[in-house]
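--- STAGE predict ---
source: upstream dedup step, 1 unique chain passed
mode: sequence only
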Amino acid sequence: MTNYYQRQAILLQVRRAQQRQQERLQREAQAERRARRLLRKHLTPKQLRQLKKGYFEVKGSRSGHIYRINCHRTAQNIVNRTLRRRFCILIDNLYDWSFSHGYVDCPKSDHLLAQKLIIETNEGRFLRIAERMWL
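--- STAGE serialize ---
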């Protein structure tokens, strides 16, 4: 009999864990939908057309260089062909947060919007704190 109750307790724990996982995934999907709407509100008509192709281009506030932000990921997703560089900047870099794991649980579209805004408003800071790689 003890094995039966132990198995039932384990099954109950598994079902609860699955339910929590499903709820978390639903919250994340809802947050991403809201973040995507906010991103679209901040894009120009040209950038909205580019977004359908998986990227959008942003003009640097200081140099006027064009940066292409790839929307399929948030790391190493910014390319400047003039400088022949790829850049990586995440939200935790922008706000000088110190997380030991180096990851902020934030919708991807919020990362993209933060990247767009810092390039358009403070390109110098962007260049100081972004990780750089050669193309």
